[in-house]
Amino acid sequence: QVQLVESGGGLVQPGGSLRLSCAASGRDFSGYVMGWYRQAPGKQRVLVAKITSGGSTASGDSVRGRFTISRDNAKNTVYLQMNNLKPEDTAVYYCNVAPIATISWGRGAQVTVSS
């Protein structure tokens, strides 16, 4: 059974940092483009960053320069380092194949940025 499990979320003050992890199981994802998506309250889920199997990355305008996506293919794990967090980054964060999610969504990691 293919499964994605996100972790590392939490409550952080504006300007703080968090590191999210996504552990994949049931399939070797090393050859896939993987991405981090987020869904803010009342909004659609959107792709914020993606990484190719070779490590090339791309990110959206709203997070560029603050968020860094990386992966460890040996561990079948994808990471999202989030720095200088802002209240508008508050959302549930998910990982999946990118740019079109083809795996059942995990439970996500709640990130709340608030003072």
Radius of gyration: 13 Å
Structural category is mainly beta
**Main beta sheet strand tally, sense and closure:** 6 strands, mixed
Poorly predicted sequence stretches spanning 5 or more consecutive residues: none
What's the pLDDT, averaged over the residues? Answer: 96
Label the overall shape: globular
Q: Determine the N-to-C terminus distance.
A: 40 Å
Query: Secondary-structure element sequence?
Result: EEEEEEEEEE
Order of strands across the main sheet: 2-10-9-4-5-6
Strand content: over 45%
Percent range of helical residues: under 10%
**How many H/I helices?**
0
What is the count of β-strands? Answer: 10
Which helices and strands occur, and which strands form pairs?
Blueprint lengths: L2 E5 L2 E3 L5 E8 L8 E6 L6 E6 L5 E3 L7 E6 L4 E6 L8 E7 L11 E5 L2
Parallel strand pairs: 2-10
Antiparallel strand pairs: 1-3, 3-8, 4-5, 4-9, 5-6, 7-8, 9-10
Question: Summary?
Answer:
This protein has 115 residues and is an all-beta fold. Helix content is 0%, strand content 48%.
